[in-house]
Protein backbone atom coordinates (compact mmCIF):
# COMPACT_ATOMS: atom_id res chain seq x y z
CA UNK A 1 0.00 0.00 0.00
CA UNK A 2 1.34 3.42 -0.97
CA UNK A 3 1.23 6.16 1.63
CA UNK A 4 -0.78 9.14 0.37
CA UNK A 5 -1.24 11.04 3.62
CA UNK A 6 -3.59 10.85 6.58
CA UNK A 7 -7.16 11.41 5.35
CA UNK A 8 -9.28 14.04 7.04
CA UNK A 9 -11.78 11.30 7.87
CA UNK A 10 -9.28 9.90 10.35
CA UNK A 11 -8.93 13.19 12.19
CA UNK A 12 -12.71 13.60 12.24
CA UNK A 13 -12.96 10.08 13.67
CA UNK A 14 -10.72 11.10 16.58
CA UNK A 15 -12.74 14.26 17.17
CA UNK A 16 -15.80 12.06 17.53
CA UNK A 17 -13.99 9.62 19.81
CA UNK A 18 -12.88 12.46 22.07
CA UNK A 19 -16.53 13.49 22.41
CA UNK A 20 -17.86 9.94 22.86
CA UNK A 21 -15.18 7.53 24.08
CA UNK A 22 -17.47 4.54 24.27
CA UNK A 23 -17.72 1.04 22.87
CA UNK A 24 -20.87 2.07 21.03
CA UNK A 25 -19.05 4.82 19.11
CA UNK A 26 -16.03 2.61 18.49
CA UNK A 27 -18.09 -0.26 17.12
CA UNK A 28 -20.05 2.04 14.82
CA UNK A 29 -16.91 3.70 13.45
CA UNK A 30 -14.31 0.96 13.56
CA UNK A 31 -14.26 0.65 9.77
CA UNK A 32 -13.34 4.36 9.57
CA UNK A 33 -10.47 3.79 12.01
CA UNK A 34 -9.15 0.82 10.04
CA UNK A 35 -9.36 2.56 6.65
CA UNK A 36 -8.37 6.13 7.52
CA UNK A 37 -6.08 5.76 10.55
CA UNK A 38 -4.49 2.34 10.88
CA UNK A 39 -4.09 1.64 7.15
CA UNK A 40 -2.28 4.91 6.31
CA UNK A 41 -0.15 4.61 9.46
CA UNK A 42 0.89 1.11 8.40
CA UNK A 43 1.67 2.35 4.89
CA UNK A 44 3.77 5.21 6.29
CA UNK A 45 5.78 2.85 8.47
CA UNK A 46 6.38 0.44 5.59
CA UNK A 47 7.90 3.30 3.61
CA UNK A 48 10.19 4.19 6.53
CA UNK A 49 11.17 0.62 7.44
CA UNK A 50 14.10 0.20 5.00
CA UNK A 51 15.91 3.11 6.68
CA UNK A 52 14.77 2.91 10.30
CA UNK A 53 13.53 -0.63 10.90
CA UNK A 54 10.26 -2.39 11.59
CA UNK A 55 7.77 -0.48 13.70
CA UNK A 56 5.40 -1.56 16.43
CA UNK A 57 1.92 -0.09 15.91
CA UNK A 58 0.25 0.43 19.27
CA UNK A 59 -3.15 -1.04 20.02
CA UNK A 60 -6.06 1.43 20.14
CA UNK A 61 -7.22 0.13 23.53
CA UNK A 62 -6.17 1.77 26.78
CA UNK A 63 -4.89 -0.22 29.75
CA UNK A 64 -7.28 1.05 32.41
CA UNK A 65 -6.39 -1.41 35.20
CA UNK A 66 -4.41 1.10 37.26
CA UNK A 67 -5.83 4.35 35.89
CA UNK A 68 -8.50 6.64 37.30
CA UNK A 69 -9.45 7.42 33.68
CA UNK A 70 -11.55 4.46 32.57
CA UNK A 71 -12.20 5.60 28.99
CA UNK A 72 -11.50 2.49 26.90
CA UNK A 73 -9.88 3.90 23.74
CA UNK A 74 -6.82 5.99 22.95
CA UNK A 75 -7.56 9.26 21.15
CA UNK A 76 -4.45 8.94 19.00
CA UNK A 77 -2.63 6.30 16.98
CA UNK A 78 1.04 5.89 17.76
CA UNK A 79 3.88 3.70 16.53
CA UNK A 80 7.48 3.23 17.64
CA UNK A 81 10.67 1.91 16.05
CA UNK A 82 13.38 0.53 18.35
CA UNK A 83 16.08 -1.18 16.25
CA UNK A 84 16.86 -4.67 17.53
CA UNK A 85 19.90 -4.86 19.77
CA UNK A 86 20.01 -1.16 20.63
CA UNK A 87 17.96 -1.28 23.82
CA UNK A 88 17.56 2.50 24.13
CA UNK A 89 16.90 5.17 21.56
CA UNK A 90 13.65 4.96 19.57
CA UNK A 91 11.67 6.86 16.95
CA UNK A 92 7.97 7.62 17.49
CA UNK A 93 5.15 8.97 15.32
CA UNK A 94 1.56 9.78 16.29
CA UNK A 95 -1.58 11.00 14.53
CA UNK A 96 -4.63 12.46 16.28
CA UNK A 97 -7.24 15.17 15.90
CA UNK A 98 -4.52 17.59 17.04
CA UNK A 99 -2.30 16.73 14.07
CA UNK A 100 1.06 15.02 13.68
CA UNK A 101 3.64 14.38 16.42
CA UNK A 102 7.13 12.94 15.99
CA UNK A 103 9.60 12.15 18.73
CA UNK A 104 12.81 10.32 19.51
CA UNK A 105 14.93 9.30 22.47
CA UNK A 106 13.82 7.43 25.59
CA UNK A 107 10.44 7.62 27.32
CA UNK A 108 11.03 5.14 30.11
CA UNK A 109 14.28 3.92 31.64
CA UNK A 110 14.73 1.23 34.26
CA UNK A 111 16.88 1.99 37.30
CA UNK A 112 20.00 0.37 35.83
CA UNK A 113 19.58 2.37 32.63
CA UNK A 114 19.13 5.61 34.59
CA UNK A 115 22.39 4.87 36.42
CA UNK A 116 24.25 4.35 33.12
CA UNK A 117 22.62 7.46 31.66
CA UNK A 118 23.84 9.61 34.55
CA UNK A 119 27.35 8.15 34.43
CA UNK A 120 27.50 9.04 30.74
CA UNK A 121 26.16 12.56 31.32
CA UNK A 122 28.82 13.09 34.01
CA UNK A 123 31.57 11.76 31.73
CA UNK A 124 33.90 14.40 30.29
CA UNK A 125 33.44 13.09 26.74
CA UNK A 126 29.92 11.66 26.51
CA UNK A 127 28.29 14.35 28.65
CA UNK A 128 29.30 17.27 26.42
CA UNK A 129 28.23 15.26 23.37
CA UNK A 130 24.70 14.87 24.71
CA UNK A 131 24.57 18.50 25.87
CA UNK A 132 25.61 19.72 22.42
CA UNK A 133 23.05 17.51 20.71
CA UNK A 134 20.25 18.67 23.02
CA UNK A 135 21.22 22.30 22.36
CA UNK A 136 21.25 21.67 18.60
CA UNK A 137 17.80 20.11 18.69
CA UNK A 138 16.35 22.94 20.77
CA UNK A 139 17.69 25.52 18.30
CA UNK A 140 16.16 23.43 15.51
CA UNK A 141 12.67 23.69 16.99
CA UNK A 142 12.48 20.51 19.07
CA UNK A 143 11.03 20.41 22.58
CA UNK A 144 13.21 18.47 25.03
CA UNK A 145 10.98 16.58 27.43
CA UNK A 146 11.04 13.67 29.85
CA UNK A 147 10.61 12.64 33.46
CA UNK A 148 12.83 14.79 35.70
CA UNK A 149 13.69 14.95 39.37
CA UNK A 150 13.07 18.21 41.22
CA UNK A 151 15.98 17.61 43.54
CA UNK A 152 19.62 16.98 42.68
CA UNK A 153 20.19 13.23 42.19
CA UNK A 154 22.26 11.50 44.87
CA UNK A 155 25.99 11.61 44.28
CA UNK A 156 25.94 14.78 42.17
CA UNK A 157 26.36 18.49 42.88
CA UNK A 158 23.87 21.25 42.19
CA UNK A 159 26.78 23.16 40.65
CA UNK A 160 27.40 20.54 37.98
CA UNK A 161 27.54 22.09 34.51
CA UNK A 162 25.06 19.49 33.22
CA UNK A 163 22.78 19.31 36.26
CA UNK A 164 19.64 19.83 34.15
CA UNK A 165 20.49 16.72 32.12
CA UNK A 166 21.46 14.77 35.24
CA UNK A 167 18.00 15.33 36.73
CA UNK A 168 16.37 13.49 33.83
CA UNK A 169 15.06 9.96 34.34
CA UNK A 170 14.05 9.88 30.69
CA UNK A 171 14.69 12.25 27.80
CA UNK A 172 13.13 12.66 24.39
CA UNK A 173 12.84 15.32 21.71
CA UNK A 174 9.37 16.09 20.34
CA UNK A 175 7.92 18.15 17.53
CA UNK A 176 4.23 18.72 16.76
CA UNK A 177 2.30 20.11 13.79
CA UNK A 178 -1.36 21.08 13.84
CA UNK A 179 -3.50 19.83 10.93
CA UNK A 180 -2.76 21.47 7.58
CA UNK A 181 -3.38 20.41 3.99
CA UNK A 182 0.02 18.72 3.63
CA UNK A 183 -0.97 16.23 6.34
CA UNK A 184 -3.45 14.72 3.88
CA UNK A 185 -0.76 14.21 1.23
CA UNK A 186 2.38 12.13 0.69
CA UNK A 187 4.40 15.16 1.87
CA UNK A 188 3.82 13.84 5.39
CA UNK A 189 6.23 10.99 4.65
CA UNK A 190 9.04 13.45 3.91
CA UNK A 191 8.19 15.41 7.06
CA UNK A 192 8.47 12.32 9.25
CA UNK A 193 11.55 10.94 7.49
CA UNK A 194 13.42 14.25 7.74
CA UNK A 195 12.48 14.61 11.40
CA UNK A 196 13.57 11.08 12.28
CA UNK A 197 16.88 11.62 10.51
CA UNK A 198 17.38 14.67 12.70
CA UNK A 199 17.13 12.38 15.74
CA UNK A 200 19.71 9.79 14.62
CA UNK A 201 22.53 11.24 16.71
CA UNK A 202 20.40 11.47 19.86
CA UNK A 203 19.24 7.88 19.49
CA UNK A 204 22.77 6.67 18.78
CA UNK A 205 23.97 8.33 22.00
CA UNK A 206 21.34 6.44 23.99
CA UNK A 207 22.12 3.16 22.25
CA UNK A 208 25.86 3.54 22.89
CA UNK A 209 25.68 4.81 26.47
CA UNK A 210 22.47 3.41 27.98
CA UNK A 211 21.55 0.26 26.07
CA UNK A 212 19.07 -2.36 27.22
CA UNK A 213 18.04 -3.00 30.79
CA UNK A 214 19.70 -5.85 32.69
CA UNK A 215 16.83 -6.13 35.16
CA UNK A 216 14.69 -9.24 35.18
CA UNK A 217 11.24 -8.64 33.66
CA UNK A 218 8.44 -8.25 36.18
CA UNK A 219 6.15 -11.28 36.38
CA UNK A 220 2.63 -10.75 35.10
CA UNK A 221 -0.10 -10.95 37.68
CATH class: Alpha Beta
The major pleated sheet works out as: 6 strands, antiparallel
Question: What would the average pLDDT be, to the nearest integer?
Answer: 93
Q: Multimeric state of these chains?
A: single chain
Rg of Cα set: 19 Å
CATH topology: Yope Regulator, Chain: A
Envelope shape: globular
What gap, in angstroms, lies between the N and C termini?
A: 39 Å
Determine the number of helices (DSSP H or I, runs of at least 4 residues): 7
Counted up, domains total: 1
Structural class computed from helices and strand pairing: alpha+beta
What is the CATH architecture term?
2-Layer Sandwich
Task: Name the helicity range.
Answer: 40-55%
Structural description of this entry:
By secondary structure, this protein is α+β, with helices and mostly antiparallel strands. The protein has one domain: Yope Regulator, Chain: A (2-Layer Sandwich), CATH 3.30.1460. It is 43% helix and 15% strand. The chain is built from seven helices and six strands; from the N terminus they run ααββββααβαβαα. It has a six-stranded antiparallel sheet. A hairpin with a 2-residue loop joins strand 3 and strand 4. The protein is globular. InterPro entries: CHP02453, UCP028451. This is DUF2461 domain-containing protein.
Search tags:
Yope Regulator, Chain: A; alpha+beta; 15% strand; 221 residues; six-stranded antiparallel sheet; 43% helix; disordered C terminus
What's the layout of helices and strands?
Blueprint (H helix, E strand, L loop, with lengths): L7 H12 L3 H30 L3 E2 L18 E6 L8 E7 L2 E8 L4 H12 L3 H14 L3 E3 L17 H4 L4 E7 L9 H12 L1 H10 L12
Antiparallel strand pairs: 1-2, 2-3, 3-4, 4-6, 5-6
Pfam families: DUF2461
InterPro entries: CHP02453, UCP028451
Protein name: DUF2461 domain-containing protein
Amino acid sequence: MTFDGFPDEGLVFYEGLEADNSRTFWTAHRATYEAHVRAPMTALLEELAPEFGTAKVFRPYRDVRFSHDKTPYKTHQGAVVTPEGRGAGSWYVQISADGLLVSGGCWRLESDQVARYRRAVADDVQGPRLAAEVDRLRVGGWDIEGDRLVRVPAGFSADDDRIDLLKHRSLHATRHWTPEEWLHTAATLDRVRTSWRDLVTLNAWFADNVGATTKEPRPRR
